[in-house]
Amino acid sequence: MLAAVDDLVDHRTIGEMAWSNLAAHFDEAQILKMIALAGYYHTISFLCRALDLPLETYGARFPAPPLLG
Fold first, then answer.
1. Cβ-contact 20, 27 below 8 angstroms
2. Do 4 and 19 touch, CB atoms closer than 8 A?
3. Residue 69 gets which letter from DSSP?
4. Is 47 in a helix, a strand, or coil?
5. What is the pLDDT of residue 52?
6. Is the dihedral of CA 40, 50, 68, 65 positive or negative?
């Protein structure tokens, strides 16, 4: 599933290998729901970033990346 979402984000499609792997575990309706959900989260991300919405105070944060020296 992660490979399929990566394909969607990077290439706006799902490659043959990722699709085959999805089809081995999920039916077509489940795959369509996954595609729609990925699109939904992408849309929410666009809106939040474009509107410069503040971060939620209760949300967990990713750790800061290590500094390169």
1. no
2. yes
3. -
4. helix
5. 94
6. negative
pLDDT along the chain (69 residues), means of 10: 92 94 96 94 93 91 82
pTM: predicted TM-score of the whole model, two decimal places: 0.72
Distance separating alpha carbons of residues 56 and 54, to the nearest angstrom: 6
Domain ranges of the chain: 2-50
Extract the tokens encoding 6: 């990566």
- What is the DSSP-derived secondary structure letter of residue 58? T
Structure tokens at 40: 């939904």
Tell me how far apart the alpha carbons of residues 57 and 22 are, in angstroms, rounded to a whole number: 36
Which amino acid, one-letter code, is at 63? P
The token pair that represents 65 in the structure block:
């990346």
